[in-house]
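Hello,

Our lab assistant flagged a job as stuck in the queue for most of the afternoon. It eventually completed. Since we weren't sure the result was trustworthy after the delay, we are filing this so someone can double-check. Below is the sequence as submitted and the structure that was eventually returned. Let us know if re-running is recommended.
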Amino acid sequence: ACPNAAIVLIAGNHDPAARLEAPRALFDFIHVVSIGVISREQDELNLRHHLIPLYDELGQLRASILALPYPRAADLPLGSSVTQGSPLVEAVRVLYRDAIQTVRRQNSAHPLILTGHLHIAGGLESEGAERRILIGGEHAAPSDIFPDDVAYVALGHLHRPQSVGRANIR
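-- returned structure --
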């Protein structure tokens, strides 16, 4: 019914990340993108793995999805300099900042949609449904880790529809 629709799966904190990666060739055949882990090439985000173009019904590129799964400890950049606050939250901030900069160096003309499986400060938890997921109890990243000029942020983890921080972060 929607041949140009993009179907993107990202791993959450309960998902077996490697298992979501395993059927990639089969998923490619049916035009589904499944991202379980953060992939890098030469210390930079592998855009062939994480950047999904969105086309209109005429086949024109209209936007892109930067699909990032739940950031495991191994995915986070090491040695972020933090003067105050959580080093883990700062590492998540650096992960998104670097990923977005990589995209913009190569593809800045179209709207950018981000994904993430994160607990964002100010988000309303469903009773008994979510766990605080960042290591060491530092569980909530601020919404300002997402730049104002991104078109939309599609978050996982909080199990109820809501805007968090800004109307385009959901």
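-- support follow-up --
The delay was a queue issue, not a problem with the job. The result is valid. Residues 54 and 60 are 8 Å apart (CA to CA). The chain has four helices and eight strands.
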